[in-house]
Each structure stands twice: as structure tokens, then as C-alpha cells.
Design brief:
The chain has one helix at about 15-20; strands spanning about 30-35, 35-40, 40-50, 55-65, 70-75, 80-85, 95-100, 105-115, 120-130, 135-140, 145-155, 160-170, 175-185, 190-195, 200-210, 215-225, 230-240. It contains one helix and 17 strands. The longest helix has 8 residues, at about 15-20. About 5% of the residues lie in helices and about 65% in strands. By secondary structure, the protein is mainly β. The strands form two sheets. Strands 3-4-5-6-7-8-9-10-11-12-13-14-15-16-17 form a 15-stranded antiparallel beta sheet, covered by helices on one side. Strands 1-2 form a two-stranded antiparallel sheet.
Length: about 240
């Protein structure tokens, strides 16, 4: 097992990627045309490695929700991982995060500061346990209002078959939600996901590789316990260069 703990966003990443990754969720602000909501997301990075150390530079760009535009520097080495970033907006958010651990047990924190008001915008903390059988994590976010526990189990690496669970509790609303999900690749070029939550939310996803660089994703979501909600269908096309 690697002695690098990764970065803070790696805590619980296996479970959250299975449960929520690649689902077509629109940002808070998006383009709207009749019944269609759409947005654009561009990201890229540069990586440099030396024995025992790794440095990454990432750029994320969103349209029209430019609040998420960001430049980030990541530094990883044995027993330690650090990131520093700044959002590309008129009132930028400056973020710092750090993780210490040995790969089996990791703990860290993530802090963001609003440069315009000099106030604390985010303060999260988390820890994770990683084994060959199970990956588990516990995070505290939303300024100590939301507690999440994640678990992930990879069943068959060749077919990307896995299961994940999330138990979330919000202290302000005293609401607890359990979410379960699974994924499987029936073919090397195809991935199918599904998830269900105790609040009635159901979602499924179909992902298909087109040629060698294009990926088509179709996702659907609905809430069977909310009579006022309607089912949503999302389509995305990604290009990797």
C-alpha cells in the first residue's frame, strides 16, 4: 500500500464517486433554453514527479457559473499532502487543505477564506481508513453542521463492480439520510450506476465510451416521495485530450 495519503478531496472519494460522480448535476447557475438547462466545464492540469514526491497544477473553468473557476496547486509526498488554490472571481476564495497519514489511516482539514470580507467560508475536517477489502471515511462539513460516513467495497476490479453507502446527518434540521449505490461494467466500454436514498431519491446512469477520447453519459433522477418533483434527464459529452 502506498504511504502517500493523497489530498483532502481523496477522503471518501471512492464512495462519493460511485454515488454521485458523473451524474449530470447542473451548477447553481446555468444556461436555460425552454426545457433545457446546460453548462460548460473545462479542466486541465500539469503533473511533475520525482521519487517520493509529486506536484500537480490544476485549472478548472465553468460557464456560466464562474464562482467555481479555480487554480490549484497540489503537493504530495509520503505521509503528507497539501493543496492551495484561489478562485478566479472578483471576490476570490482562497483555499488551503492538508492531509497527514500513511495510506491506511489519514486525517486532514480543508479551509476556505473569502478574500473580500476576510471571513471563513468553509472549514471541513475528515479521516479515512483504507484497506484492500474496504474503504471507510468520516467527514464534518458545512461549518460542523453536516456529518457524513462513507463506505466503499470493490467487488471485481476487472468489471469495475463495486458498492458504496453514505450515512448523512444534518444537525440543524435533525435529518438523517442513508444512500446506497452500485456500479458495474458489462463491457469494457460501458458503465452502469444506480443509487437509492431513504428520502425517496432514485438515480441511474449509463456511460459509454465513444472512440478513444469521447465519453457519453446519460443520467436520470427522481424522488418517489415528493409528489411535486418531476423526473430529470441529463446528457453530457466529455472529451479527454
Amino acid at each position: 500500500m502506498s504511504k502517500q495519503p493523497g489530498i483532502y478531496s481523496d477522503i471518501g472519494k471512492d464512495a462519493t464517486d460511485l454515488l454521485y460522480g458523473d451524474y449530470n448535476m447542473q451548477p447553481p447557475i446555468c444556461y436555460h433554453f425552454n426545457w433545457l438547462d446546460w453548462s460548460l466545464n473545462l479542466s486541465g492540469g500539469v503533473r511533475a514527479s520525482v521519487p517520493g514526491q509529486e506536484i500537480r497544477t490544476l485549472l478548472k473553468f465553468y460557464l456560466p457559473y464562474q464562482r467555481s473557476n479555480k487554480v490549484e496547486l497540489q503537493y504530495l509526498r509520503d505521509y503528507f499532502g497539501y493543496t492551495a488554490g484561489i478562485s478566479l472571481t472578483k471576490s476570490p476564495l482562497i483555499s488551503f487543505s492538508g492531509v497527514i497519514g500513511n495510506g491506511f489511516f489519514n486525517t486532514g482539514a480543508d479551509i476556505s477564506i473569502d478574500a473580500e470580507t476576510d471571513t471563513l467560508a468553509k472549514c471541513d475536517a475528515g479521516l479515512s481508513f483504507n484497506t484492500d477489502i474496504l474503504t471507510a471515511s468520516l467527514t464534518l462539513s458545512d461549518k460542523a453542521d453536516t456529518l457524513r460516513a462513507h463506505a466503499y467495497r470493490q467487488i471485481q476490479p476487472l468489471t469495475h463492480t463495486g458498492i458504496a453507502a453514505e450515512l448523512m446527518h444534518q444537525f440543524s434540521s435533525k435529518q438523517t439520510t442513508l444512500t446506497l449505490g452500485a456500479q458495474h461494467s458489462p463491457f469494457p466500454f460501458m458503465l452502469i450506476k444506480a443509487r437509492a436514498a431513504s428520502d425517496g431519491s432514485l438515480a441511474t446512469l449509463f456511460q459509454h465510451d465513444l472512440l478513444s477520447r469521447f465519453c457519453l453519459t446519460i443520467g436520470a433522477e427522481m424522488n418517489v416521495m415528493d409528489a411535486m418533483s418531476t423526473a430529470t434527464l441529463g446528457v453530457s459529452l466529455s472529451l479527454k485530450v
